[in-house]
UniProtKB/TrEMBL annotation:
Location of the FAD-binding domain: 2-341
Protein name as annotated: p-hydroxybenzoate 3-monooxygenase
Top-rank taxon, per record: Bacteria
Alphabetized InterPro entries for the sequence: FAD-bd, FAD/NAD-bd_sf, PheA/TfdB_FAD_monoxygenase
Xref: NCBIfam families: PRK08243.1
EC numbers for this chain: 1.14.13.2
One MF annotation (Gene Ontology) recorded for this entry: FAD binding
Gene3D superfamilies given in the database record: D-Amino Acid Oxidase, subunit A, domain 2, FAD/NAD(P)-binding domain
Keywords: Monooxygenase, Oxidoreductase
Presence of keyword Oxidoreductase: yes
Length: 391
């Protein structure tokens, strides 16, 4: 089998890339280890930047984001016992949308299949080969157990933080920028009405909490926990008590309900530099991971492939290898800004295990600056709603 671009991974990066390439008349095949049902039901991110929504709706993805998603024009920071709103719309004229990642994936898969795309779910033993030559390929075993050689012009490694693509990049040819945090996020889904019209990012001396939403009947909440916390060790009552304690003050209280999903998310920052090795181009979590506090992970994956689709079009039209050079440096500029924003939000809002009273007061000073200074609030609003795409 032969295609122009072999895409490893059917997450936001891989599926969006396949879609953007098709719009340019470029052929691709997507190979994915999980089955379609698993992809369409895995709970992950929830916040889409305005630019991500504009891209999906503007390129004909049959997305329900505008009807079923919720536009948020601001966000609330709670600290010192009360809420402080940041008005995105008023400060920067932009918004974000609450629309779950697996719904984005359902929309992308449906759009690609309706266009006749070749998406191979449930494959195994995926190996990119010959990426330093001009005839690379991806070898895999398909869902029927047949070994397949997928020849191509370029391999796009979109297989997330635990994929195989990055390992094709020899360790002495890349720099791994890596940082772990001494805490994780305990995430729940609960059947309950919303407690607040906008997202709440809460700082407290017990640690961070985030109150988000999915639908009028389902709420998403997170709280800082130990990185190795066992979610099954927590009763529902203990979870609610902990969440309530972290957002308390000012008469504010969460509306509680039945908890039907829970899990612990690790927190890390990672960047692989370069993002290209010969004919292998890394995009999304395969190339970088951010802690979730800034809600940047999915949006960064989409921003990468917007740049990548343009670079691949130039390369495939001209046959000039040097056209691939600009991808990494262009994408990395946004990646490092998002790394900084995600690290900054994380360090401003979380309580590290060894935090001193000085650390807590310094965080409160920072939060006061961000919520009371117009310049501070505008920086946060600009970064959270998303910088323009470097196209
Ligand atoms: P992924 O979505 O990881 O997609 C990669 C795909 O490649 C997957 O479908 C995977 O099955 C497939 N794959 C893996 N290995 C192979 C292989 N060898 N061969 C073929 N296919 C392979 N971000 C936020 O902003 N907020 C959040 O609340 C948030 N929560 C998260 C919770 C969890 C549990 C995780 C893991 C991530 C979360 N993220 C969150 C991050 C966000 O979901 C990611 O940044 C985003 O999914 C990146 O998209 P991607 O396409 O690059 O990678
Ligand atoms: C959600 C996740 C985030 O990481 C975030 O910063 C805001 C909201 C969510 O899952 O709703």
């Amino acid at each position: 089998t032969r295609t122009q671009v072999a895409i490893i991974g059917a997450g936001p990066a891989g599926l969006t890339l396949s879609h953007l390439l098709a719009a340019r008349g470029i052929d691709s095949v997507v190979v994915e280890t999980r089955d379609r049902a698993a992809i369409e039901s895995t709970i992950r991110a929830g916040v889409l930047e305005q630019g991500t929504v504009d891209l999906l709706t503007g390129t004909g993805v049959d997305t329900r984001v505008r009807t079923e998603g919720a536009r948020h024009d601001g966000v609330e920071f709670r600290f010192g016992g009360r809420g402080h709103r940041i008005d995105f719309a008023g400060l920067v004229g932009r918004s974000v949308w609450l629309y779950p990642q697996h719904e984005v994936l359902k929309d992308l898969i449906a759009t690609r299949l309706a266009a006749g795309a070749d998406l191979r779910f449930g494959v195994s033993d995926v190996v990119p080969v010959g990426v330093e030559t001009d005839s690379p390929a991806v070898h895999f075993t398909d869902a029927q157990g047949r070994r397949v050689e997928l020849r191509c012009d370029v391999v796009a490694g979109c297989d997330g933080s635990a994929g195989v693509s990055r390992t094709a990049l020899p360790e002495d040819r890349r720099v791994d920028h890596f940082r772990t945090y001494p805490f994780g996020w305990f995430g729940i889904l609960a059947e309950a009405p919303p407690s607040s019209p906008e997202l709440v990012y809460a700082h407290s001396d017990r640690g961070f909490a985030l109150i988000s939403t999915r639908t009028p009947d389902v709420q998403r909440m997170y709280f800082q926990c130990a990185p190795d916390e066992d979610p099954s060790a927590w009763s529902d009552a203990r979870i609610w008590d902990e969440l309530q304690a972290r957002v308390a003050g000012d008469g504010f209280a969460l509306k509680e309900g039945s908890i039907f999903q829970r899990g612990v998310i690790p927190m890390r920052s990672y960047v692989c530099d370069p993002m290209r090795f010969g004919r292998l181009m890394l995009a999304g979590d395969a190339a970088h991971t951010v802690p979730p506090t800034g809600a940047k992970g999915l949006n960064l994956a989409v921003a990468d492939v917007i740049v990548l689709a343009r670079v691949l079009e130039e390369f495939l039209a001209s046959g000039e290898e040097r056209r691939l050079d600009s991808y990494g440096p262009t994408a990395l500029r946004r990646v490092w800004r998002a790394q900084h924003f995600s690290w900054w939000m994380t360090s401003m809002l979380h309580t590290p295990p060894e935090a001193t009273p000085f650390d807590l007061q310094r965080q409160l000073g920072e939060l006061d600056m961000v919520t009371s200074s117009r310049a501070g609030a505008a920086y946060l609003a600009e970064a959270y709603t998303g910088w323009p795409i470097d196209d």
